[in-house]
C-alpha cells in the first residue's frame, strides 16, 4: 500500500511531519535546484543520468555537495521501498540552506535536501497520447541559464496557467527572434523532411533525459536522425508532425498550436517513437 512519505536530509518520514525553516534560501530566493525522476513499476527510470543532471546544476550555482550521487541513489531506492510507490515520480530539491537574510552566499550554511513523491496514474494521459493535444505560445522571458534546473520557475508557472485558461495542454516558449525553445516542462520536436528537428541543447533549454534518449537511442532505432537547430513557427507549420517529450508527458503528439493544425494529425513517426519508448521503459523498469 502506498504511503505518502518524504525524505529530509537523509531521513524518511510521513509528509505531514516534515518541515523546513522559513529562513531557507530556497524559500526566500529560489536559491536551489531540482530534478524529477520518473518511477515505473516501483523502479527509478534513468536514475544515474538524472542524478548527473542534478549535480551539474548544483555545481553551476555553487551549492556545496553534501551528498554523493551514490547516496542520492540509495535515498531514491529507500524512498520507493518504504513508500510502496509503483508509478509516479520523485521530486528532489537541494537548496543552499538556512541563513540570515541577504543575497550573497552565507559564510555558514548547510545545504537542505528534500525529496517528495508524486503518485501518478499514467493511463490518464494515454488517450491524449493517441489523439494528440493542442498547445499555445507565449514570449520566452526566462533567464539565460535554463540548462540549470533552478527553483526560479515563475515564468513556467504563469505560462502553464495561461495554457489552463486557454484549455490547452501546455505553452510553448518563443524568443524575441521568433525561435521556439521548449514548453513549460518538456522539449519540443517536429518531424520534417524525414528528420526530427529540435532546439540545440544549450543554455536556452532545460536538460531533458527523454530528449537525450530520443536522440541517442529511440530515433536511431527507427532509422531517424535528430537535427538540433533553432526554428520558428513558419517552419513548424510546414512540418508533418510535432510532439512534446519529457519525464511527465513521455512522448506527446501535438496536433494544434494556437489553433493552427500541424500536418494531418498524429502522424506515423510519433507512434513509432512512443512504441520504442515503451519498450525501452519495460526493459529498464520491468514489472516485479
UniProtKB/TrEMBL annotation:
Acetylation found in the keyword field = no
Q: Which domain of life is it from?
A: Bacteria
Which family would the database say this protein is a member of? Belongs to the class-IV pyridoxal-phosphate-dependent aminotransferase family.
Q: Which Pfam families match?
A: Aminotran_4
Keyword terms: Pyridoxal phosphate
The UniProt record lists the keyword Glycosyltransferase: no
* Protein name as annotated: Putative D-amino-acid transaminase
- Tell me, which GO biological process terms does this entry list? amino acid biosynthetic process; carboxylic acid biosynthetic process
Q: Which GO terms describe its molecular function?
A: catalytic activity
Amino acid at each position: 500500500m502506498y504511503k505518502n512519505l518524504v525524505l529530509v536530509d537523509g531521513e524518511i518520514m510521513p509528509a505531514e511531519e516534515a518541515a523546513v525553516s522559513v529562513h531557507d534560501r530556497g524559500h526566500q530566493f529560489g536559491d536551489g535546484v531540482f530534478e524529477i525522476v520518473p518511477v515505473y513499476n516501483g523502479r527509478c527510470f534513468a536514475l544515474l543520468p538524472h542524478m548527473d543532471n542534478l549535480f551539474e546544476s548544483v555545481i553551476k550555482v555553487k551549492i556545496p555537495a553534501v551528498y554523493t550521487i551514490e547516496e542520492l541513489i540509495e535515498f531514491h531506492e529507500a524512498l520507493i521501498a518504504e513508500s510502496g510507490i509503483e508509478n509516479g515520480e520523485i521530486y528532489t530539491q537541494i537548496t543552499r540552506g538556512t541563513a540570515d537574510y541577504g543575497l550573497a552566499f552565507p559564510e555558514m550554511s548547510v545545504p537542505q535536501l528534500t525529496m517528495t513523491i508524486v503518485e501518478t496514474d499514467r493511463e490518464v494521459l494515454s488517450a491524449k497520447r493517441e489523439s494528440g493535444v493542442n498547445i499555445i505560445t507565449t514570449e520566452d522571458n526566462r533567464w539565460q541559464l535554463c540548462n540549470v534546473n533552478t527553483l526560479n520557475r515563475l515564468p513556467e508557472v504563469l505560462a502553464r496557467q495561461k495554457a489552463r485558461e486557454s484549455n490547452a495542454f501546455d505553452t510553448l516558449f518563443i524568443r524575441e527572434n521568433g525561435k521556439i525553445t521548449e514548453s513549460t516542462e518538456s522539449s519540443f520536436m517536429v518531424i520534417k523532411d524525414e528528420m526530427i528537428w529540435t532546439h540545440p541543447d544549450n543554455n536556452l533549454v532545460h536538460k531533458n533525459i527523454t530528449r537525450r534518449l530520443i536522440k541517442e537511442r529511440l530515433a536511431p532505432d527507427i532509422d531517424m536522425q535528430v537535427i538540433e537547430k533553432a526554428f520558428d513557427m513558419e517552419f513548424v507549420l510546414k512540418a508533418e508532425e510535432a510532439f512534446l517529450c519529457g519525464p511527465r508527458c513521455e512522448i506527446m503528439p501535438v496536433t494544434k498550436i494556437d489553433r493552427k493544425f500541424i500536418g494531418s494529425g498524429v502522424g506515423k513517426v510519433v507512434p513509432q517513437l512512443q512504441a520504442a519508448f515503451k519498450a525501452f521503459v519495460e526493459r529498464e523498469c520491468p514489472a516485479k
